[in-house]
From TrEMBL:
Keywords: Transferase. This is Glycosyltransferase. Belongs to the UDP-glycosyltransferase family. PROSITE patterns: UDPGT. Pfam families: EryCIII-like_C. Gene3D superfamilies: Glycogen Phosphorylase B. CDD domains: GT1_Gtf-like (cd03784). SUPFAM superfamilies: UDP-Glycosyltransferase/glycogen phosphorylase. Residues 248-364 form the Erythromycin biosynthesis protein CIII-like C-terminal domain. NCBIfam families: MGT.
Amino acid sequence: MSHIAFLNIPGHGHITPTLPVVTELVARGHRVTYAVPAGFTDLVEHAGAQPVRYPTTLPTSDEEWPTDMAPAMRLFLAEAVALLPVLAERYDADRPDLVVYDIGAWPARILARRWGVPALQFSPTFVAYDGWEEDMKDLYDTPEMEAVFAEIQDWLTAEGEPTDARTFVGHPDRAVVSIPRSFQLNGDSVPEKYTFVGPCIGDRSFQGTWERPDDRPVLLVSLGSAYTNEPAFYRTCVEAFGGTHWRVVMNIGRHVRPEDLGEVPDNVEPHPWVPQLDVLSKATAFITHCGMGGTMEGLFHGVPMVGVPTIGEQHLNAMRLVELGVGRYLPMEQVGVESLRAAVTELVDDPAVARRLAAIREEIRHAGGTTAAADVVESMLA
């Protein structure tokens, strides 16, 4: 029995894609520990892992997260500085044979090097391709980002880590990527050390199910688990699709109350949370913030998406859906009753969209998902 340690950051979009892989590895006879804060212990235990609890320094409120890259990276650096000695102590008497880590779990590579064990990155999002630095020059080569990389370099040097800061943050030695290659930016230019396995989807029935009350086509509306305090957006969705032929399932989050939406027609269901994967399995269309997790779940189920992103990567995801011909990009400031209706109608009425979604679903099926990811993990143990 090998001991595999998963190190991650406390975010559903980062932890959720790994959980089916944890379950698969445990089923294959491995022992898996998973370092998480208290709020995620139930999830990793349900997947079959032993939680290794730690106190996080990252913001607990959605609204406290910065939207700009430099301050966000400083938060990850502060977390890494605080967490490195904690994880070193937690694992001192139970060192793993392999470390699997998230793109934001910076202590992982340092600990793996100290322990003399391999490290495998599990990326739930885009990875670097040949020419990445040149294409991202305007984003990274700013005084603010230069200062952040200098701070990261100081930390790495103090910890005896020989890798330079930019390589450390953006270029792993080996990685599994839980998106299909066709969705990756410049997918044909990604080095072979990255294995695209596509979405890793597991059984989430323990989170509940949603039963369709009638035969109307289902429209799911969700801005994810962060930045959901958008009552005007939800009211616009109610006005656009209330009283129509759609069955609208709307995740309004914990900040907005149903009474904030005004009069809600019978065909609209506002919920503080929904079992998204189950709803998507029955959905015809999806209005989404385009977080990578939800975007991959939409592609997995072949559901066309209208992207209404709020921060960084979400805009890239929405634009990528447009480039692939399976979605529409609608910035929040352009959201209106007519624009929402038109975007959804154009997608569901276009047979070419359905054909392209079917092709992506076939690619995802052949990529292997959870099984392929677990195979790569095991190959690192050889």
